[in-house]
Amino acid sequence: MTAPAPTSAPPTRQPLMALDQALSSLLASAQPLADTEVVDTFNADGRVLAQSLVSALHVPPQDNSSMDGYAVRCADLSSASAASPVVLPVTQRIAAGHSGQPLQPGTVARIFTGAPVPAGADAIVMQEEVVLGAGPDSQPLASFSACPPTGAWIRRAGEDVTRGAEVLHPGTRLGPAELGLAASLGLAQLTVCRRPRVALFSTGDELVMPGTVPPEAMAPGAIYNSNRFFLRALLQRLGCEVSDLGIVPDNRAATVQALTDAAQTHDLILTSGGVSVGEEDHIKPAVQQLGGLDLWQIAMKPGKPFAHGHIRRADPHSLAHFIGLPGNPVSSFMTFVLLVRPFLLRLQGVADVACPAQTLPAHFTVTKADRRREFLRVRRNAAGGLDLFANQSSGVLTSAVWGDGVVDLPAGTTVAPGDAVRFLAFADLLA
Amino acid sequence: MTAPAPTSAPPTRQPLMALDQALSSLLASAQPLADTEVVDTFNADGRVLAQSLVSALHVPPQDNSSMDGYAVRCADLSSASAASPVVLPVTQRIAAGHSGQPLQPGTVARIFTGAPVPAGADAIVMQEEVVLGAGPDSQPLASFSACPPTGAWIRRAGEDVTRGAEVLHPGTRLGPAELGLAASLGLAQLTVCRRPRVALFSTGDELVMPGTVPPEAMAPGAIYNSNRFFLRALLQRLGCEVSDLGIVPDNRAATVQALTDAAQTHDLILTSGGVSVGEEDHIKPAVQQLGGLDLWQIAMKPGKPFAHGHIRRADPHSLAHFIGLPGNPVSSFMTFVLLVRPFLLRLQGVADVACPAQTLPAHFTVTKADRRREFLRVRRNAAGGLDLFANQSSGVLTSAVWGDGVVDLPAGTTVAPGDAVRFLAFADLLA
Predict the structure, then answer these.
(1) Where does the pLDDT of residue A277 fall: very low under 50, low under 70, confident under 90, or very high at 90 and above?
(2) Which of A149, B58, B257, B290 is the most exposed place for a label (fewest CB within 10 A)?
(3) Class of the A37-59+160-193 domain?
(4) Chain B within 8 Å of A97 (Cβ-Cβ)?
(5) Could you give the C-alpha distances from A191 to A41, A43, A143, B231, in angstroms and in order?
(6) Looking at the predicted structure, is the pLDDT value of residue B128 above 60?
(7) CATH architecture group of domain B46-57+163-193
(8) Domain covering B64-155: architecture
(9) ipTM reported for the complex, 2 dp
């Protein structure tokens, strides 16, 4: 046998796209959703604020005590010393939530944490520094052995929040602290971006839904569909309404119909699988027919194949986004958290969608540099460094379960123990 | 006026308890809940696994291709070179989810990522390295210019998970990756610890619910109740069922009744406010009467006052936990995430409840050491260091909104720029 005359040129490698370029392109297409809704502050955890929160009051509302003790006029105590204490009558008692009377010269007020400082008082003395007694008429007396500095233990009105200040701006993702802050300003309801609606499709002949076939009865080549499980959880954590539309139909006409229908009522159609060069399914030609599709080869590992497109709707001014993730579980997981997560946050109006990174020491070795930017699953250890999971396979999520984050390793880089590397925590990537 | 004969000795400062000691004491009391329930894997995000997950299958199930390309017998290609390629007929095509036929010597198989490697094949050659052609009978031919190493681009059966291996152990908190891993083993349902039931009370005459009084009509000394908003969100993130029981009744008998009722149906009764030395409310004597109560002064800032106790139930072998947090918002928030969070995770059976910490450089100065361990609200900056929020007041949550974590500063410590400090991320503390 002799060499054949080639009928196809060797496929030239498609040039790889940098991850940052892919992210920029995705974010540029993410026009924030215009619709808002009003929700109870109690139910706003994880939502994105669509209004500016301006404080209508000072926090704290008045000067108040930051200690349990005695409100005094410093001038009354100017001569106080341990050798010669000053003794003054306790003429009132002010608890949090109650207003006292103006403090007369030569008197002091018992006061508790958070209680308003009475007019005339200019310092608080901690109760531990006061000796109590009683006069002949049972009048409570307090003995002071030092003069406090003016303003001691007084929290000033507006010290934490000034009336008129913007405390939260539109595009803020709300968490427990933000809800507490909004409540402290008296806000029982908040205007937030509506939830993005995401339709989730899976693709792949080999995929079997857990629960339908027991492990011992799995056909050769069959694997369980795991991607839709973590994708749905990740989408819900980002505030999305998820429609799980199951497996993509196995013919072109039905696929076109399913995508057309989903596009009318969803902001994003998300698939996993079917985006590699060699894979054949009906999704790619259907999306191309219904709108447009770019097939990227992203210079990241795990990851690489990634599809981004859109599907037109009946309304010509409106479209649904389409994103196709790779089918390998870890590739799907990592492209989701590094690309789809910021896309969905931006869709809700979040400005800063970057994941915070730390620089930490590697407690491992990478001897073989990769031409792609690598995201190695690692775990923080008790010594303050990062341990590497031995099996960086993209076929199963054991590495993402064992690890608590990834090292973002530039292309062409090796690592020696002690090298400072860039760490992204799953706690940040999955929040 | 002369100094009175003291009728009360100066209150000696109650010795402060170390935070670690408080945590140990809390965890020692947290007997994990015995009840479990079976939930769909789809709905198990955030729950705690109450079973051991042992894989009933290999992952991957068979040797399979990790590339799109051609399955070959290396022996057929031993003489291949660029100058003298070896040309072999392509006799079958194997896609993911399909099994091929045994590979006959002198033939190759077209194969796609994830597809089972046919019997007899011992390597995969990437499609980019193969030239295609056709023989006179239109038989597809593939031309190879090199011999691959044995095993090239083959993922071995069981490489990621071996049949019989324990992949998740009881007490694992489930997140998206864990759900995906469980699904990849065929598990559509999981046995998890039941949700802890938490009754939330607020205390404080000065507290006004947002929405009931507008800011301009707030009475002097009145402040909005913000703690119940963030506490409810934090509890829900930990998988708890929350009953918000509102403000503690303002008399002893009603308080005793409310606590008695709540204790019958809840695992934890959580209050905020009313635990400082000087504060007077009905909670403390009521809990003392109904079970027992320890009032701690914890050596942490913000924080310090903290109450831990229990309330007996009708069943003498069972009790409800009681935890009283300080009333200042940031004190309440920080004692929750540092003490109540690990307590509630342990109650669900989580063994390792410690928050992962990083060592990062301070980009700020602390000149005045505190006698308490301080938790300073900070934010990671673009230079890889930590910036300090200027106002570390515990009165309002602005610092926790601005920051993305805290520096855990030992008692008696000052900080200079560049010092390595211990950082705890809110993403970890709030997850």
Answers:
(1) low
(2) A149
(3) alpha beta
(4) yes
(5) 9, 12, 53, 21
(6) yes
(7) Alpha-Beta Complex (3.90)
(8) Beta Complex (2.170)
(9) 0.89
Q: Say if A402 is an interface residue toward chain B (CB within 8 Å).
A: no
For chain A, give every residue range classified as CATH 3.90.105.10: 37-59+160-193
Q: How many CB pairs under 8 A join A and B?
A: 407
Output the average pLDDT for chain B.
91
Residue A401 three-state SS: helix
What are the helix (H) ranges across B167-308?
Answer: 176-184, 227-237, 252-265, 283-290
Task: Give the pLDDT confidence score for residue B1 in this predicted structure.
Answer: 41
Q: Which residue in B8, B130, B229 has the most chain A C-beta atoms within 10 A of its own C-beta, making it the best mutation to test that interface?
A: B229
Nearest-by-CA chain A residue for B358 = A384
Domain with CATH 3.40.980.10 in chain A: 19-35+194-347
First to last CA, chain A: 60
pLDDT of residue B248 exceeding 60? yes
Nearest to B42 among A186, A219, A229 (CB): A229
The pLDDT of residue A51: 97
Q: What is the CATH number of domain A358-429?
A: 2.40.340.10
A133 vs B: CB within 8 A:
yes
Q: Does A209 touch chain B (CB under 8 A)?
A: yes
Strand partners, A422: A359, A408
Instruction: Give contacts of B 316-355 with A, CB under 8 A.
Output: 327-329, 333
Q: Could you report the per-residue pLDDT of A397-426, keeping only the tens digit for each? A: 999 999 999 999 999 999 999 999 999 999
Q: Among all chains, which residue has been given the structure tokens 């994941």?
A: A355
- Model confidence at B68, pLDDT cuts 50, 70, 90, reads confident
Q: Say yes or no: A1 contacts chain B, CB-CB below 8 A.
A: yes
| CATH number attached to the domain at B19-35+194-347 | 3.40.980.10
